[in-house]
Amino acid sequence: MPITILGIESSCDDTSAAILSDKTVLSNVTASQEVHQKYGGVVPELASRAHQSNIVPVVDRALKEADVEMKDLDAIAYTLGPGLVGSLMVGSSFAKGLSLSLNIPLLEVHHMKAHVMAHFIEEPETSNPELPFLCLTVSGGHTQLVIVHSHKHFEVIGETIDDAVGEAFDKSAKIIGLPYPGGPLIDQYAKLGDPESFTFAKPKVPDLQFSFSGFKTSVLYTVRDRVKENPNFLEQQRDNLCASIQRTLVEMLMEKVRLAQKQTGITRIALAGGVSANSELRTSVRKLQEEGCEVYIPKFEYCTDNAAMIAVQGYHQFQEKQWGSLSSAPSARLRIE
Ligand code: KG4
Ligand code: ZN
Predict the structure, then answer these.
(1) Taking burial as the number of CB atoms within 10 A of a residue's CB, which of 17, 199, 277, 312 is the most buried?
(2) Sign of dihedral through CA atoms 129, 133, 134, 139?
(3) Tell me: the pLDDT tens digits for 117-168?
């Protein structure tokens, strides 16, 4: 008999619920929160309130779309961390209450592991990477290079010493006057611009570490100086700025991916996390195929925050009877290892 898992994700500003039958997605419903746009970033207090009003309708829709009733659920997987504590608490409290009332187990899932494990969602046209593989995990809160040995054993071999690359996208977007989240907009406008128009600083950090704060400052100073000379600079140069920002960030990521590939000798390369939706990053990683690598890129809907990835990681934990506890508290800074 296949097992039916309800996944719940509420770590940041997306409320998501999914129903999986083993590793096959029956439904994956996400409510995004537009309330943050005008503030230029996620406002934690507003995020938890929006989760509170979204969670019941989102779970209800996921059940209906999957044609599954509550009584058919075998377990509930939810995000324990990392993330915004107020946001995590909404998903966690909801999952605990439902598990108590249905008398089914809880599965506590690490958000970044789930991004990586999205590669194991069963889809007719995609293949799953063999273990071990090298994964570039890039989101609004993380930038890591991870060797995935198994669904429990993740070895972080490199990470950012300051901002995450998603933050670098979003903060640069804010500097050039784009609303939050700016990453997808930079991607969109970059297609219309010349990526060589502007040169921004690429901070030098050793080995497999990343750093993006110097880059962001460089974007800020360029914009400040050029707007002084020409008040219409941002309107006139929006597309060229986006193309140059995106080129520089993708180059910084790819330098480290190549280095990690050389150092580890692993030729299976995967992308995970919200920034893996970026079209230039996807194209650049795909090019590694010409150098003899196997490349794995998730479908768009499994790149940014979603509950299907939480449920698939939950499925692996279910197999090992790694049950959650009603007394576990969500954690803003849960380590992956
Ligand atoms: O994984 P995710 O949905 O949430 C976190 O766990 O942080 O990632 C969100 C991040 C945001 O910074 C957003 O701007 C970025 O992913 N993002 C993109 C694109 N789509 C989402 N960045 C660049 N290009 C995109 N197409
Ligand atoms: Zn995420």
Answers:
(1) 17
(2) positive
(3) 999 999 888 889 999 999 999 999 999 999 999 989 999 999 999 999 999 9
Measured in Å, residue 156 CA sits from the centre of ligand 2 at: 17
Residue 260 Cβ < 6 Å to ligand 1: no
Query: Residue 97: which region, alpha, beta or left (left: phi > 0; alpha: psi -120 to 50)?
Result: alpha
6 contacts 69 by C-beta, under 8 angstroms: no
Asked whether 273 lines ligand 1 (CB < 6 A), one says yes
Q: Which domains does the chain have, with CATH numbers?
A: 4-118+302-319 (3.30.420.40), 127-298 (3.30.420.40)
pLDDT tens, 90-112? 999 999 999 999 999 999 999 99
CA distance 67 to 56: 16
Ligand 1 closest atom vs CA 279: 26
Identify the residue whose C-alpha is closest to ligand 1 atom 3: 304
Contacts of residue 312, Cβ cutoff 8 Å, sequence gap at least 6: 7, 20, 23, 114, 117, 118, 120, 121
Q: What is the mean pLDDT of each run of 10 residues along the chain (337 residues)?
A: 97 96 98 86 91 97 98 98 97 98 98 96 89 97 96 95 97 95 97 98 95 97 98 98 98 98 98 97 98 95 96 98 97 87
